[in-house]
């Protein structure tokens, strides 16, 4: 499942550069995560890097975008151009 940034975000700017898929971008009020690009860092890291650096712990799983590890890996393969 993709991640999402809640309204508890303080716009500290630390999550955006940590995302290997460029899924995080500034929104109108807070940062946002594009669920089509978020792989929870599957394929890149063992844990989502944005969650690791967030000082206010405002990046939970997005219940509207549930995906298995295999689905996240498939998305990673497509995003990185490794899909066959």
UniProtKB/TrEMBL annotation:
<keyword id="KW-0411">Iron-sulfur</keyword>
<dbReference type="Pfam" id="PF12838">
    <property type="entry name" value="Fer4_7"/>
</dbReference>
<dbReference type="GO" id="GO:0005737">
    <property type="term" value="C:cytoplasm"/>
</dbReference>
<keyword id="KW-0408">Iron</keyword>
<dbReference type="InterPro" id="IPR050157">
    <property type="entry name" value="PSI_iron-sulfur_center"/>
</dbReference>
<feature type="domain" description="4Fe-4S ferredoxin-type">
    <location>
        <begin position="1"/>
        <end position="29"/>
    </location>
</feature>
<keyword id="KW-0004">4Fe-4S</keyword>
<keyword id="KW-0249">Electron transport</keyword>
<dbReference type="InterPro" id="IPR017896">
    <property type="entry name" value="4Fe4S_Fe-S-bd"/>
</dbReference>
<dbReference type="GO" id="GO:0046872">
    <property type="term" value="F:metal ion binding"/>
</dbReference>
<keyword id="KW-0813">Transport</keyword>
<keyword id="KW-0677">Repeat</keyword>
<keyword id="KW-0479">Metal-binding</keyword>
<dbReference type="InterPro" id="IPR047927">
    <property type="entry name" value="YfhL-like"/>
</dbReference>
<protein>
    <submittedName>
        <fullName>YfhL family 4Fe-4S dicluster ferredoxin</fullName>
    </submittedName>
</protein>
<dbReference type="GO" id="GO:0051539">
    <property type="term" value="F:4 iron, 4 sulfur cluster binding"/>
</dbReference>
<dbReference type="InterPro" id="IPR017900">
    <property type="entry name" value="4Fe4S_Fe_S_CS"/>
</dbReference>
């Amino acid at each position: 499942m993709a991640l999402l940034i809640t309204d508890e975000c303080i716009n500290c700017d630390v999550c955006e550069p940590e995302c290997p898929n460029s899924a995080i971008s500034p929104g109108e009020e807070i940062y946002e995560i594009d669920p089509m690009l978020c792989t929870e860092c599957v394929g890149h890291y063992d844990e989502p890097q944005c969650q690791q650096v967030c000082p206010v712990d405002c990046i939970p799983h997005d219940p509207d975008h549930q995906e298995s590890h295999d689905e996240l890996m498939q998305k990673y393969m497509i995003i990185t151009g490794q899909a066959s």
